[in-house]
Sequence to fold (114 residues):
Amino acid sequence: MKTQQAKKALTARQKEYEVLAAFIDFADEGGDQLARYLLHCGIDSEALDAAGGNVEAAILEHYRTPRGYDIDRVAYDLARWPPIVEMVRELKAEQREKRAAEERERYRKGKSAH
Fold:
């Protein structure tokens, strides 16, 4: 019985780590970047006040559901973060350009074979 409770506790803590992991890079970049990201996610000063000023608790409460934590929502918030949106756009443009260059090269080789 204790082992099962320990596994549940570990699993719950692992879920918390999954939620908080998305915020670690922002925290490493400094308070301003973390504050902007918190606001982007909808975690404002009111939420921080409700958590007694504890940022970790405010983040966890924001994503808490009756069944645990909404990891999909964490991912969604991260995917909508403007610098990441821009990075995705740039990568897609690079992929399109690479495919177009490859297609031009295949066309050029095909024409020279005739």
Q: What stands out?
A: The first helix runs from residue 2 to 29.
